[in-house]
Amino acid sequence: MYNMSLPWWGWALMAVGFACFMLMVALSVRRNHGVKRSLFASPYTLWMIVFTVLPCILVAYYAFTDANGAFTLDNFRHFWDSNYTKNQLYAQMGPEAAAFISRGTVNVDTLVYSLWMAFLCTLISLLLGYPAALYMADRHMKIGSTIVVLFIIPMWMNFLLRTIAWMSLLEDQGLINNFLRLLGFEGVQLMWIYAVSSDIMNYSRMDDYLGPLYAADIDAGRITEEEAVQTVLYLYKHFKEINKIHDCRVIIGGVGRKHQKEADRLAIVIMEASRRFRETVPQLTLRYYSNMDETVFRKAMEVNAEGTTFPIIYSDETNVPAVEKVFGVSHEEAEQYVPFGCGEYVMVGYSVGTPNNGINALKALEIALHNGLDFYQNVPCGEKTGDPAQFDTFEKLYDAVLAQLKPTIDRFAVHKYLCLLYTSDAADEL
């Protein structure tokens, strides 16, 4: 359980703030023979100063200073060229390495994308907000006030509760999806709308969440298998069009699916689409397990035999126990793993990116040999482990390198369920 109690300094800060407010009230009463209405805005003013103005000042300070607090414009060079530090290193390595120098645009692309999203959100808000405001302004005062209250009330609710409510509305059999199905919208279209709006790369276990819709349409005679293949091919074309940086993945098969029979029927269609598409995107991945449907496995072998590369086959009998052990999750949770990126694993519904981390042990050695200094960038970035000239045994050098590694290991971005922390025992094992 999380400790929700405030530390002593938190209570002290609240007490000081309350005391200052009451002092201002007393002074106002004495000077003005009453409390000025503007005085009651002071807590909000203080809040804005502490949580809005001061953070902006700090951002400006760190923007123009380096790690030592000296004035610099290097931060802006880093922003406009995300490869700036790497390029500086290449330049120091000589003309041979200069061929690897290239300007990185990740930061700029992210900024442009963020501004574009902000513009779209603002535009949509205006298009929705102005008609609503006009309607409320046109109503009788009493009715208008009621409408305003109805607009404001949802904002009083905890953000987490609002999120849970939206999850209920947007789930597979939720109100919105059922209503859209009545209007004739296909499950593939709904999935694509979600994919575009959330900017995902891994489309997870597509056969499981679209399988029941496919089976229902086939059994009702609304579509044929060939039409379903064509629909998946159109979806693949969209995947390829938006793929700018990363290859996307589609996962089929495996244990732990909610709709195994329906999913297997769609898995065959998806593999047939990959057989015809013959592109590197999406990376179709089949999770193999004992006693899986023989028809599905034979289809995978037929598609692979034609040299399509896909589907990539992962063994659940090996991977599920491995995920269970390494991630520290239950067997049922481990069954929901999906390959991500080059092949690392993430958990459906919990993970937001790759869990992989890497340690540059040679860099740690370099920093240890310079007593905590990054020699190439000439900035302190490690522990002060002493003058390497005084390392008269290998064990002292080993301990210094290990001391440089420990903070990095401690800061690893691990999965929510990953509980393996760096300890002194782990250090001994190294």
Fold blueprint:
Blueprint: H1 8-32, H2 42-63, H3 74-80, H4 84-93, H5 106-138, H6 141-156, H7 159-170, H8 175-182, H9 187-198, E1 202-205, H10 206-220, H11 225-242, E2 249-253, H12 260-277, E3 283-288, H13 294-305, E4 312-315, H14 316-327, H15 331-334, E5 337-340, E6 344-347, H16 361-369, E7 373-374, E8 379-380, H17 394-410, H18 424-429
Helix pairs in contact: 5-6, 10-12, 11-12, 12-13, 16-17
Give your account of this protein's structure.
- This protein has 430 residues and is of the alpha/beta class.
- The protein has 4 domains: 7-63, no CATH class; 107-156; 201-347; 361-411, no CATH class.
- It is built from 18 helices and 8 strands.
- The chain has helices at residues 8-32, 42-63, 74-80, 84-93, 106-138, 141-156, 159-170, 175-182, 187-198, 206-220, 225-242, 260-277, 294-305, 316-327, 331-334, 361-369, 394-410, 424-429, and strands at residues 202-205, 249-253, 283-288, 312-315, 337-340, 344-347, 373-374, 379-380.
- The strands form 3 sheets. The protein has a 4-stranded parallel sheet with strand order 1-2-3-4. It has a two-stranded antiparallel sheet with strand order 5-6.
- A hairpin with a 3-residue loop joins strand 5 (337-340) and strand 6 (344-347).
- Helix 5 (106-138) runs antiparallel to helix 6, helix 11 packs across helix 12 (260-277) and helix 16 (361-369) crosses helix 17.
- The longest helix has 33 residues, at 106-138.
What is this structure, in a nutshell?
This protein has helices at 8-32, 42-63, 74-80, 84-93, 106-138, 141-156, 159-170, 175-182, 187-198, 206-220, 225-242, 260-277, 294-305, 316-327, 331-334, 361-369, 394-410, 424-429, and strands at 202-205, 249-253, 283-288, 312-315, 337-340, 344-347, 373-374, 379-380.
